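Section: Multi-chain targets

For targets with more than one molecule, the full set of components is provided together so that the structure can be written out for the assembly as a whole rather than chain by chain. Components appear in the order listed by the source. The example entry contains two components.
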Amino acid sequence: MTAPDTPDESETLIRIRGLRYARGAHMIFDGVDLDIPRGKVTAIMGPSGTGKTTLLRLIGGQLYPDAGSIQVDGKEVPALNRSQLYELRQRMGMLFQSGALLTDLNVYDNVAFPLREHTALPESMIRDLVLMKLHAVGLRGAIDLMPAELSGGMARRVALARAIALDPTMIMYDEPFTGQDPISKGALVQLIRLLNDALGLSSIVVSHDVAETAAISDYVYLISGGKVIGHGTPDIIRDSESEWIRQFMDGLPDGPVPFHYPAPDYADDLLRHGVASG
Amino acid sequence: MLNAIRQIGRNSIRFFTKLGRSVLFLLKTLAGIPSVLRRPHLLIAQLLSVGVLSLLIIAVSGLFVGMVLALQGYNTLVGFGAEESLGVVVALSIVRELGPVVTALLFAGRAGSALTAEIGLMKATEQLSGMEMMAVDPMHRIIAPRFLAGFLSMPLLAAVFSAVGVYGGFFVGVGLLGVDDGAYWSQMQAAVDVNEDVLNGVIKSLVFGFVVTWIAVFEGYDAVPTSEGVSRATTRTVVHAALAVLGLDFVLTALMFGEV
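Its structure, encoded as tokens over all components, is:
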């Protein structure tokens, strides 16, 4: 699939071209082209195991591609040295699937962590900023709780407050809705959209929750089998006739993504077992 | 036969790959130490968890080791009418050997395993990745303070072990078995040399502290990020650290005291 007919260069925050990445013999990405526009919520969807989280790690410079280009804000991520990469990461927020809160710090200290590490602000100002960020995610009252005392949804909201602590230009969400109850899911859906618009962020939401993700995104990429199998606005994706896209959007168990993991012939397998045990 | 050779080759490659990784890891850890010294609160927190919280087990163990040494030593020495030398036997055994070695073994079991499990779980729960994405280097923020705390704690814990052990020996030898109080201390004072014995014991405990903590933090950082992976890494820390301590003890003893 060719590069999407998305916005011109100045409006593109992340530009990926010809991305190839393999883990051992397993090809995760085989020539992926993507453009993530500025100021928008871009969804990257696809079946489990298609490498959506890997894509975020490649964008964040935690993994290196085998081939291809990953540019963030005009900078070629794999070519950056450590200090340049860390400088870039200060402008990236990332919300991990698990929240990744530091378990020995309470909610306040978790949100204050990046501020203390990267700024020389006085503690009184850090406190104000932490309260503002926690208020934005509705958890100002949970300031003294430890991560173990938080529900899954609350932990992700605290992690979100921490991710926006340094006022990043972009934020990456890794499966933000997985394992959430409807109320938490609703809160997260609303927060992602609100924060994106209020703070002028660019958001990338990696998810396989079709309804929630499509509802808040401006642009959608569908990835499967190491390639982009479709992209466009949520409406275009919803109306697509592509067999791949239909299987994913309609949740069909069998189709281009097969129900059965590749295996030898069933009858042969059974007979061989019978002979061996006999 | 071919399979056995292949297996040996595979294991050797795996061993040397891991050794290389651990040396690179150590260099990165050492590079992170200046940043720890600039933020001493990180070190103090770890000194508390690695060192201070190990004090009780070290002190109790030292007491019992000293008491047992006094009992065993007395039984042997009394046959030669040399029970006044009990203080020397207890002190030299503890300061030269048992202090550094037993402290290192206990340290590996108590603090080393805790370090590995903590770092391994931080990896498994994406806390280390999260830090990297916040542009905070886990080698500087997590690994280096723990490594330095372990390295500094070991000689201090060994000193506590030795001091308590000598008093344990005193309690049994003088208090229970009737060895002369003055002879116990004066013979010890005359025979134990600061450079020959105490300093060599301190050098040993520094080396053990370095190696045990290196193994512990590396195994945690290198752990497969699953519950089984962390469990295996913790076991490896205790086993490898114990073997390294005992092996290095022989080498250091040969270098310091041996005529080999």
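The interface with chain A takes residues 122, 125-127, 129-137, 141 of chain B (CB under 8 Å).
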